[in-house]
Amino acid sequence: MKNNVLIPVYDINKHDAGNLAIDGFAVGRSLNMPAHNNEPHRHTGFTITLLLSGQLTQYIDFEKHTVSAPAVILLAPDQVHQHGEEDTISESVYIHFDKDFLLAESQGMMNCWACIFYKRAIPVKAAQMQELMNFAGLILKEYANVRPLRESIIRNLLNALVMACGRLPQHNIAYMQLVDSAQNRMVRQFNELSDQHFRDKTQVSNYAELLFVTPGHLNDTIKSAVGKTAKQVIDEKRIMEAKRLLFWGEHSVKEIAWKLNFEDDAYFNRFFKKHTGQTPALFQRSIREKYN
User: Fold this and answer.
1) 153 in helix, strand or coil?
2) How far apart are CA 73 and CA 67, in angstroms?
3) Angle subtended at Cα 45 by Cα 62 and Cα 75, rounded to the nearest 5 degrees
4) According to the model, what pLDDT value does residue 144 have?
5) Which residues form a coiled coil (predicted)?
6) Alpha carbon distance 64, 128 (integer Å)
7) Listed residue (120, 119, 121, 102) closest to 111, CA to CA
């Protein structure tokens, strides 16, 4: 695997679809061709890949996932991934979308996205893939023609496809019900804000102020919903980004500490070791030895 100084971020809206283009959405079908990009990269939105035949290897956030068709591969925004050189993709359907595209039809959907996209590579049975392809096929058909209500129909079909992925028995995850309650709204807003600001806003009080609640109330609400305090969620996001930069990039520990808004690299070293049991340098060396 190649480690780049900078990790490219690909914008869904840069997808070249001519007059068929839809803001925040892209869909396509790949036939008898290898993975399109073998460099580490991220996407601005979510990705669903339905592997219909062949084999796919992806390194996702420094974990190797190899699956044979039929299988589903799920990627959340900002996850760094790279296709393996040994891929033998024969046929697949890919769908890229940002959260604003889907939320235009389903505000409550954000409540369970994190869990739906948590399990990244999922082998499925032929009957399960057929159910998913029923939705994906309708999306492909609707996307291919510009006509009234096209975007609204695609959004609703996509909503159904995401939920069908979420209820796959292979997930084995208890995710929140899509209830538009005050608690779920706060969880959704906190997740959105912490995804955007975990680098520069590292205290619970920062988010409590933005949400017009007390830090204690925010912590209690988040812990009740996900089993972790708000501070734990923030720290986990900082650790995950640190691991991504250590594995995929060639940043020094000092540079990573600066990017994640630590006062100095010594504090970053202590923080990282507290949460992982390893120093950043040891993690970088061991994880690269494992996958290179």
Assistant:
1) helix
2) 9
3) 35
4) 94
5) none
6) 24
7) 102
* Three-class DSSP category at 259: helix
CATH value at residue 264: 1.10.10.60
Nearest-5° Cα angle at 27, 24 to 29: 165
Mean pLDDT by 10 residues, the chain (292 residues): 56 70 89 62 87 88 86 87 72 89 60 62 93 97 94 93 83 50 82 91 96 96 90 94 84 90 93 95 85 63
Of residues 286, 241, 279, the one with CA closest to residue 260: 241
Q: How far apart are CA 219 and CA 37, in angstroms?
A: 40
Do 17 and 48 form a contact (C-beta atoms < 8 A)? no
Domain identity same for 115 and 223: no
Provide the 10 A C-beta neighbour count for residue 168: 18
Which of 121, 139, 166 is a domain's end point? 166
Do you know the residue count of the chain? 292
Confidence (pLDDT) at 108: 53
Task: Yes or no: say if 14 and 24 are a contact pair by the CB < 8 Å rule.
Answer: no
